[in-house]
Amino acid sequence: MSLFLYDLPHSPYCLPVKRILDAAGVAYEVIDVPNWDRTKVIELTQGAYYQVPALKHGDRVVYETGADTQDVARYLDVTFAGGTLFPAAYAGLHDILIDYLDNEVEGATFRATDVFYVPSITDFVARTMLIRHKERKFGRGCVDQWHQQIDQLRAGAATHFARFDAMVQQKPFLLGNQPVYADFLLYGIIGNYTWKGWNSLPTDLTALGAWRARMSGFKF
Question: Per the confidence metrics, is the pTM higher than 0.85?
C-alpha cells in the first residue's frame, strides 16, 4: 500500500513524522508543499485542511482534525509503531508535555528559524506571500522584529532546551527507556531550530545532545 507524506522539509511537525517512519522502516514518498502554496493539501483533503503534515495511505487520508490533536502521529503509532508512542502509563503527563512542546517551546523556536528562512526564499512573490501570512497572525513587520530580537529568542530557546537536558540526564528518553511521541516532537522542533545551521543547541547541554543522537539512530 503506497504511503505519501505531504511535507514542508523543515517543519517542526513534519520532521517527527519522517523520523517515526524511518524508525519503523516504512517506505514513503514525499510530496513537497511550499509554505506559500498549499494547493496540494487542499486538493487532497477536499478543502478540509491546508497545513502539513498530511498523509495519503492507500485510500486513507489523514490530517489534523483540531488545533490540538495528534491524528497523524496516532495513526502512525497504530499502523507502524506498535502502539508505543502514546503509552497509557504516561497518559496525562504525556499530554502536558506535548502541550508544552506544541505551544511554549515551538513558539519560542520557530521565530529564530524564520529570521533566516524567510529571507532565504529567492522568489519575490513567494517570499512576500509568506511574509503576509506571518503578518496576519503576528502583526506587521513581525519578521523584522524577530530579527532584531534574535539574541533574546535564542536565550529563550536555551531555557526551554535546558529543561529537557535535565530530563534526559538520568534516562535515555524523556519519559523512560523508550521514546514516546513527545521525544519525536522535540526532535522535530530542534531540527527546525537548527535547520541549515542557522541556530544551534547550547554546547553545555551535553545530555540533550546525546539524546538527539540516540533519537537520530532509533529503530522500533
Answer: yes
